[in-house]
Amino acid sequence: MRTLFLQAPSFDGFDGGAGSRYQARREIASYWYPTWLAQPAALVENSKLIDAPPHKTSLAEVVAQAKDFDLVIVHTSVPSFASDVKCIQALKAANPNLKVGLIGAKVAVDAAGSLKDAPCVDFVARNEFDFTVKDVADGKDWKDILGLSWRDADGNIHHNPERPILEDMDSLPFVSPVYKRDLKIENYFIGYLRHPYISIYTGRGCKSRCTFCLWPQTVGGHRYRTRSVAHVIEEIKWCKENFPQVQEFFFDDDTFTDDLPRAEAIAKELGKLGVVWSCNAKANVPRASLEVMRANGLRLLLVGYESGNQQILHNIKKGMRVEVAKQFAKDCRELGIAIHGTFIMGLPGETRETIKETIAFAKEVNPHTLQVSLAAPYPGTFLYDQALENGWLDSANAELVDENGVQIAPLHYPDLSHKEIFDAVETFYRQFYFRPSKIASIVNEMVRDRAMMKRRLREGVEFFQFLRERKQAVHG
Questions:
Q1: Domain 3-159 indexed as CATH 3.90.25.10
Q2: Confidence of residue 380 (pLDDT cuts 50, 70, 90)
Q3: Four-way CATH pick for 190-384+417-434: 3.90.640.10, 3.40.50.1390, 3.20.20.70, 3.40.50.700
């Protein structure tokens, strides 16, 4: 079947793509690669991938192109679901013979509910959906496809047996040729990565049990299954040849440092290629490993600190000690490894005091840049079930974003309101960035690099505009 893979148009500036863990409009324009869509697209011959938000592709343009296809696979999420369904209705109005399926964490955990709420959708590919989608595209009888939930001609919904989890990660083709064929890589920005960048996965799954984290609890699982070192390096070589403009490679595995011997082996091969790279890491990587990675091109680590309060870290099963995280930050600073730190306001156990404690912790570990999010209880996560059970989540706040795609504070506690948690994000940003030492370091970075100056000025304008809109949203 002629197959279109689609990240549908949504809120303006909404990074809800199939590579984004938390779907929302960010403080500054940022877009992750739609890797979870590109992977099945790489498996299906003569397919096409449209990632509408970063390319500013309108619904009318998508509808016009969809007329040439038999099958459309749409990635959806909790915040974008209603908007995605409207897009599918428009596609089917223009092409009534079109078959449309959904993928993503939302439908993986609630296939029945998603099909019930969206009668225009023909099927859902659950969990790890790559080969499920390929079977559909290859014309296999739907009743025989593992991992598929589907609607028959009479409107009855069927749920086929689960598809076994993928073990041979090298059996997946490279995603980068799909990037080359269908995407303009210059449209993908992440504030803390050099531009243009390329993001790929070298494995799936995460052994950590963080209660809020979306992908391991819904699609990827808790066992880290990896591509071979040779397979990863072969793709990087292909990218170097086909994307000479790329300034940095980012390995988007949930925790690339979960397998340290392998991470070091990949680093040594990357060092031979002379590439600059970054990855996701936990704040417990030993100094010896950091030294190996730094010596072989590592520039930055994306680190989920989440909170500076030890009890909150226990509450969310982070498996991290505050003191270890402080030593890790010190080691990175001494070795010249930049850190982009991510924090979350409103996790279980949050109080006015723990908010202050986390801000003080952030100032102490002093990452190069940081991102502050609001606790988002996505369906399918432990945090979601816990929030419902304890009455922390009410139906009026369960959408996770507002009508502009900006994160709301869905959780509240007996002694901490939605508004206090929401306001804590701006307080955090202002106290962290508006310090003389941090301002001086940003100015110094801008003075040394004209391109960085232009970029930081643009991001500054976007940031203040975002804070203004945020205030307006909460005050109506």
A1: no
A2: confident
A3: 3.20.20.70
Which one, of 113, 109, 152, lies nearest residue 127 by Cα? 109
Residue 465 corresponds to which amino acid?
Q
- Tokens 């979350």 correspond to 344
What span, in angstroms and rounded, lies between the C-alpha atoms of 422 and 394? 15
- Are residues 328 and 357 in contact, defined by beta-carbon separation less than 8 angstroms? no
What residue ranges of the chain are covered by domains with CATH 3.20.20.70? Answer: 190-384+417-434
**DSSP secondary-structure letter at 136?**
H
> Helix 352-365 and helix 418-433: axis angle, to 10°?
20
Paired tokens of 202: 């070298």
Q: How far is CA 121 from CA 100, 116, 156, 307, 469, in A?
A: 6, 9, 12, 40, 34
Question: How far apart are alpha carbons 228 and 171 in whole angstroms?
Answer: 11
Distance CA 74, CA 71 (A): 10
> What is the spatial distance between Cα 380 and Cα 32, in angstroms, rounded to a whole number?
22
Domain with CATH 3.40.50.280 in the chain: 3-159
User: Do 125 and 132 form a contact (C-beta atoms < 8 A)?
Assistant: yes
The pLDDT tens digits of the residues spanning 319-355 come to: 999 999 999 999 999 999 999 999 999 999 999 999 9
Which 3 state secondary structure label does DSSP give 153? Answer: coil
| Distances from the Cα of 19 to the Cα of 31, 77, 95, 193, 206, angstroms | 9, 11, 28, 15, 16
Q: pTM surpassing 0.90?
A: yes
Residue 70 CA to residue 68 CA, distance in Å, equals 7
Cis peptide before 348 (omega within 30 of 0): no
Joined tokens for residue 280:
């996701």
Query: What angle is formed at CA 254 by the lines to CA 251 and CA 256, rounded to 5 degrees?
Result: 50
Q: Could you tell me where the DSSP H helices lie in 161-259?
A: 176-182, 214-215, 229-242
3-state DSSP percent of the chain in helix, strand and coil, to 5 = 45, 15, 35
Burial tier of 404 (Cβ tally within 10 Å: 0-12, 13-18, 19+) = middle
Q: What's the pLDDT score for residue 476? A: 44
- Please tell me whether residue 262 adopts helix, strand or coil conformation: helix
- Give residue-wise pLDDT tens across range 179-188: 999 999 999 9
Residue 360, both tokens: 């003080």
Q: Nearest CA to 130 among 115, 119, 146? A: 146
C-alpha span between 214 and 116 (Å, rounded): 23
Residue with tokens 């009455």: 391
DSSP β-bridge partners for residue 124: 102, 149
Residue 249 pairs in a beta bridge with 198, 277
Structure confidence at residue 202 (pLDDT): 97
Entry field: residues in the chain: 476
